[in-house]
């Protein structure tokens, strides 16, 4: 009989992850379900609810064959032997722990729904990122009714990054699967190993105890964010000392103990997870009385906020301390290239600050304009939106690069310069442009982490 997998939550993680499992494991039927009917409807078309390079091909390879999207959550749970839960776990916005703790209401609702409708044993897989020890709560809820049905909880955190999700799923650095170290727990863990073993080499599938798996996910994100904050802190020092952060990052990253990745200085990191997961880590440490550990990780977030603020303050200062009525074009709004996602994008912070200073802000982005409009709906002043960077730049005093879209490198910068107010400024928040060339054209160029190139 064909085995059934259900996934509750058809978002950035649930959709791509399950599409990959379905494509690689034709012997399983995979049902992806969500309360958001519009999202489910979009997964059934070629206009997917999220933009991710290569995703449509993977979805198309399995959709209708063994990959199904629907809102029939109860039915999907009932039929499945394995239920992945990939619902959102945002930072709590109310009550105790507001602004720090993870809001686990969606996870708990799903757990209760599983208990209510299940008629056979299930392996319940934590795919969402959760505080360490959540599995204990889940086991308590799932096995509280005293029914004969047995639930095993497994932690299988997801490490994909947006924009490269398909590559990350196809060739993961590792797949982590944690369980209780009881015979039942190890048996359930093996069932999840067997799914990934269809395409992931055995040495890349790592098993551990369940608490290590839960915690490793938070720690991996904290370490990644920490590297960015480290290089961003150094970018400020480079700007004072005529060192170049690009050269420093290259020299430091060539040390094989350090490695070259995640050393790109920027206007700050964004995305739905780094901030929330570090806040969560800090909250967990506090709750165990580990105040020094909490302060240490809080520093990573403080540095990110400093970097965002520093960027806007420099823009205002270099533009003669006033930007009132000045047209400023933001090139990019997504939190990184190759995604339409704008969650926690530094561009949101920068746009809001510029609007508060009464600048005329024009936003351009190849994929994220719809989200940008929503993010700025309640902002002071009014932003304009266009998908044409030339149109955005026309009549502008300044361009600020917020997202490292490759297309910005190959624009006709002579044409852009000719259409702008003078002196024309470029603030490159991602160090993606050719700064010397722009300076040669006539721009005043302000990179991150190296001295400005200015004509005055
Ligand atoms: P998302 O908001 O895109 O998707 C979550 C989905 O869950 C939503 O569509 C929502 O409608 C649905 N949902 C919520 N409650 C539900 C319920 N009771 N029943 C059915 N559906 C329900 O979130 P995401 O970005 O996919 O993240 C999901 C989890 O994965 C989070 O814990 C996140 O930290 C983690 N994660 C995210 C990424 C990423 O790149 N976005 C990467 C790794 C891990
Ligand atoms: C990150 C992690 O990389 C994933 O492993 C993890 O699964 C995911 O979070 C998650 O848990 O949600 P993601 O946020 O999609 O993935 O993207 P990243 O590539 O990590 O970039 C995050 C932010 O850091 C972006 O704003 C990016 O522009 C910025 N960044 C990244 C830098 O500023 N400098 C760098 O060197 C690298």
Q: Compute the CA-based radius of gyration.
A: 24 Å
Q: Note the gap between the termini.
A: 75 Å
Structural class, by secondary structure, is alpha/beta
Question: What is the average of the pLDDT values?
Answer: 96
Task: Produce a short descriptive summary.
With 456 residues, the protein is of the alpha/beta class.
Using brief descriptors, characterize the structure shown.
binds nicotinamide-adenine-dinucleotide; 43% helix; alpha/beta; 17 helices; 14% strand; binds uridine-5'-diphosphate-glucuronic acid; 6-stranded parallel beta sheet; 456 residues
What does this structure look like?
By secondary structure, the chain is an alpha/beta fold. 43% of the residues lie in helices and 14% in strands. The protein contains 17 helices and 14 strands. It has helices at 14-24, 37-43, 55-62, 73-79, 105-117, 134-142, 165-170, 183-196, 210-241, 245-253, 274-287, 291-318, 346-356, 369-375, 389-393, 413-419, 435-441, and strands spanning 3-8, 28-33, 67-70, 82-85, 122-126, 151-155, 175-179, 205-209, 327-331, 360-364, 384-385, 398-401, 425-428, 444-447. The protein has a six-stranded parallel sheet with strand order 3-2-1-4-5-6, sandwiched between helices. β9 (327-331), α13 (346-356) and β10 (360-364) form a beta-alpha-beta unit. α9 crosses α11 and α9 packs parallel to α12 (291-318). The longest helix is centred in the middle third of the chain and has 32 residues, at 210-241. The radius of gyration is 24 Å and the shape is elongated. The protein starts with a strand and ends in a 9-residue tail after the last strand. The structure holds nicotinamide-adenine-dinucleotide and uridine-5'-diphosphate-glucuronic acid. Nicotinamide-adenine-dinucleotide (NAD) is lined by residues 8-14, 34-36, 39, 73, 86-89, 106, 109-110, 128-129, 158, 160, 162, 272-273. The site of uridine-5'-diphosphate-glucuronic acid has 21 residues, from α9.
């Amino acid at each position: 009989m064909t085995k059934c997998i259900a996934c509750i939550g058809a978002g950035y993680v649930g959709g791509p992850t399950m599409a990959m499992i379905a494509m690689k494991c034709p012997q399983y039927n995979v049902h992806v379900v969500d309360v958001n009917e519009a999202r489910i409807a979009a997964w059934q078309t070629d206009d997917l609810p999220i933009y991710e390079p290569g995703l449509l091909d993977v979805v198309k390879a399995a959709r209708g064959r063994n990959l199904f999207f629907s809102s029939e959550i109860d039915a999907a749970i009932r039929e499945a032997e394995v239920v992945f839960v990939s619902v959102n776990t945002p930072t709590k916005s109310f009550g105790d722990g507001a602004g720090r703790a993870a809001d686990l209401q969606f996870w708990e609702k799903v757990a209760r729904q599983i208990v209510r409708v299940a008629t056979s044993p299930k392996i319940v897989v934590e795919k969402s990122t959760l505080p360490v020890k959540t599995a204990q709560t889940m086991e308590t809820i799932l096995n509280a009714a005293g029914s004969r049905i047995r639930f095993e909880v497994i932690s299988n955190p997801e490490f994909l990054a947006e924009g490269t999700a398909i590559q990350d799923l196809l060739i993961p650095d590792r797949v982590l699967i944690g369980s209780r170290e009881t015979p039942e727990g190890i048996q359930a863990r093996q069932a999840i190993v067997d799914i990934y073993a269809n395409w992931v080499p055995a040495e890349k599938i790592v098993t551990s105890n369940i608490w290590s798996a839960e915690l490793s996910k938070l720690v991996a994100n904290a370490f990644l964010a920490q590297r960015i904050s480290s290089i961003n802190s150094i970018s400020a020092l480079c700007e004072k000392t005529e060192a170049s952060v690009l050269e420093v990052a290259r020299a430091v990253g060539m040390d094989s103990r350090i490695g070259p990745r995640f050393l790109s200085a920027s206007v700050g990191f964004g995305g739905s997870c780094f901030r929330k997961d570090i806040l969560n880590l800090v909250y967990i440490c506090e709750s165990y009385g580990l105040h020094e550990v909490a302060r240490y990780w809080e520093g990573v977030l403080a540095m990110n906020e400093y970097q965002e603020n520093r960027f806007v303050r420099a823009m205002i200062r270099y533009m003669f301390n006033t930007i009132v009525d000045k047209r400023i074009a933001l090139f990019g709004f997504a939190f990184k290239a190759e995604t339409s996602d704008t969650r926690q994008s530094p561009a949101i912070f920068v746009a809001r600050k510029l609007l508060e200073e009464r600048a005329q802000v024009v936003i351009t982005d190849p994929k994220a304009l719809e989200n940008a409009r929503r993010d700025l709906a309640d902002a002071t002043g009014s932003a304009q939106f266009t998908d044409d960077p030339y149109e955005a730049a026309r009549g502008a005093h300044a361009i600020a690069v917020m997202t490292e879209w490759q297309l910005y490198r190959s624009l006709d910068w002579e044409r852009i310069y000719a259409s702008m107010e003078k002196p024309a400024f470029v603030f490159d928040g991602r160090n993606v442009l050719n700064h010397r060339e722009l300076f040669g054209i006539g721009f005043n160029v302000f990179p991150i982490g190296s001295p400005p190139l200015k004509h005055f």
